[in-house]
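Forwarding these from the shared drive since the link keeps breaking.
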Amino acid sequence: MRASEDTKVVVGRVSGLFGVKGWVKLFSYTEPRENVVAYRRWYLSQHGVTREVEVREGRRHGKTVIALLNGFDDREQAAEIVGAEISIDRDQLAPCDDGEYYWADLIGLEVVTAGGEALGQVDHLIETGANDVLVVRGGANEYLVPFARPEVIKRVDIAGGTIEVDWSVDF
């Protein structure tokens, strides 16, 4: 499903505990990773249950990010949310400039070649360092398409739900 203005966007997950006063470690999908704590209202989803929480404080700590959430005042309470997925309201994200996209905007888009062949839908993206990679699934096939513009990615049409690529079904 593509993100829209009224959907939630996954920005990380609670990965562990930090100390005894309710702090948790986070695995952040934001860039830079400590930006996840700038969003003060989160939705934690775990075991089919979603609850809204407020970030009291948070910061980068070494190679990880830690946060203290309202209502989680000790290690035992915080342990309940380890593994929870962190989402925010889409409208908390800053608008993108022309030609820029959030990953969530690309997920679910149909990927077609310049010749009109359908490859499938964007399932997720992978960060490789050199450039991001679209993981496109179509039937039994999976394609790894570099998000390299203008060499590979020819056109992104969020409103139309498509990405046109210079790619072959044989890759």
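-- next protein --
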Amino acid sequence: MVDKQSGQVICTWFCNGKKHDFRLYKESKTRNTSKIEVITDSGYQGLEKLDANTQMPKKKSKKQPLTKEDKRKNQELSSQRVINENVIAMLKRFKIISDRYRNRRKRFGLRFNLIAAIYNLELIQ
């Protein structure tokens, strides 16, 4: 999770192996207060049921293409999500999440949180 205003990493959660982001979110038991607005990508389908204050882009189907208003809203949401994607790209420069992790799995969480703390510290300075 990334703070929209400051761009700082707020919360991290990970697991062993491959797991879908939304499934990982559900298993993390991290819940949002009603004051915070959540902006996600379309991979989090069903999050509206868990959190009412969620915005995600509308998907098209074969029978219902997107209207111009839907496309405009999707573009607006993606421009707000760019902050999150840029933070992920900055964290990938450390190679811990872009390459295969070949060290002890027990220490992955500690190392990733330290990298997130270094990133947050760079933003402050």
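Residues 68-92 form the longest helix (25 residues). The longest strand covers residues 38-39.

- D.
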